[in-house]
Prior knowledge:
Chain A is of the alpha+beta class. Helix content of chain A is 53%, strand content 15%. Chain A has a four-stranded mixed beta sheet. Chain B has a single domain, classed as HUPs (Rossmann fold), CATH 3.40.50.
Amino acid sequence: MPTDESADLIELTREVCRRELAPRVDAAEAAGEMPREIFRTLGRSGLLSLPYDEELGGGGVPYEVYLQVVEEIASVWMSVAVGVSVHALTCFPTVTAGTPAQQESLLRDMLSGELLGAYCLSEREAGSDIASMRTRAVEHEGGFSIRGTKAWISHAGHADYYTSFVRTDDLGGKGLSCFVVPADAAGLTVATPERKMGLACDPVAEVTFDDVHVDADRLVGERGQGMQLALAALDAGRLGIAAAATGLAQAALDLAVRYAGERQQFGRSIGGFQGLGFMLADMEAAVSSARSSYLFAARLKDAGRPFSKQAAVAKLMATDNAMKVTTDAVQVLGGAGYTADFPAERFMRDAKVTQIFEGTNQIQRLVISRHLLNH
Amino acid sequence: MNIVVCVKYVPDAQGDRTFKDDNTTDREGVDGLLSELDEYAVEAALKLKESGEGEVTVVTVGPEAAADAVKKSLQMGADKGVHVCDDAIHGSDAAATSLLLAEAIKKSGEYDLVLAGLASTDGTMSVVPAMLAERLGLPQVTQVSTLEVEGGTVKGRRDSDVASDTIEASLPALVSVTDQINEPRYPSFKGIMAAKKKPVETWSLADLGVDAERVGLAGSWTKVTSFAKRPPREKGEIVTDEGDGGTKLAEYLAAQKFV
């Protein structure tokens, strides 16, 4: 921790997690309920706006510290940690490219802690290949009219605004623009949520824009700057996912260690058998190296140095490791791990999506190799 | 309105709490924190401050680490802190503690209202507020679940099993509040940053003009002579229902004099 205040911030996060998140997580995940009130509690404590400048209404916290907050939250409730990371992502374009007027009129509210955002980038036919997106904004008097459908949108139906990337010009990747669309805009509808494998408390659905009018002052950044903003936001967002995956893996490891110490077979705790002891050691190494890789990337970012490659490495490492560690945790718990009476199986289900969203791990490898080969 | 809130630094109730060789609370084996029951008093003070004008001062008596309880209160929004800290205080009982609190409150300046929690989560005696009121010569309104201040009076409701009393007193007064009165806020990150710049006074016995013989283990009127761990919970009795489960349950409850 770089300062006493950062240590106090982590302490505050742990307290909120212990008192507000831990008592609710199991029931809410089983029921698949979006814990909107939890986000208000986090917001009021300033935990939804940490990495952005104080002048903009944020916490002015280094990324290195913000990510540790995300990790702490994930170690108790993965869906909420992902939500915190997604919210930070939705603020990114207005923070980096918004006009002073937009930072006053839009961003203040976005960083107030009361609002929750959604990030509309993917479409059914435009996932990794975002430049092929078809949702279109047509300029008309006083603004734009958006038409199309976005897919895989976290917080859909619960968000207060949708940071949306849409096509404004037929110029491939150079023809995309970013808009902040209010949730109550006429013509914006949310489909039935997807039936997912994990992250049950993170509602994901398609969002359809049926000639949704947005005022011109909700275009964030230059017309055509959308792709650049989306990719930059994802560089930072990937670190949030890496930190969340690390917290999830830590929770699985802690559970496995506790169980291996308590469970008796052949007259001794099973952790005493080298077969399991070594598994736990590998899990610890996987969690620690994941943490090191996201902290390294975060320090580069905090120092103002290029961090895109290292963010991709961190996302790749932390999420692949989380998949491995959570799978092994189920194994350590044996039959108990396969039941819903223990959270190991939920950790494993929650881990899977981290290898998929915010750039699949195949895309991370593409990003890394392009950096290496200067493509 | 100037409000003083008494807070206590206690071992985390979720930890494995124990005593030291001299039968005082072990403060090293378990992490300490602001007594959760005192958070309600801090919150009550902050609400009063926010609805009008005034300043909230938190006062604690305790070892060096007790500064954390003051810090947490300042992070929540209190304006300044007083920490009475002196090696000679170690082992002070409730009466001695109330003496120290009274002297610290007098020294801290003008006040209209002194707030305290229901009880500490470690000692749980719930007598310090009453003793403190006596020492300060204040009317005491203890264990209330509501609190209103209007003009020069304070009004609160004390709930019991049989009745709810509404109690009114003229200011200055001492009020202790229950955990039903509000929902304490968490500090915000801005609060954490702001707390750094808030003034905290640390006073010794000499600063307060209190004779060391009146406090500490030797100066306390009460003494813990021995302690025993609560016996572990025994295995419950399982009633197998063979059509007479209800009767058996009733018999059990009657035998234990529950019904």
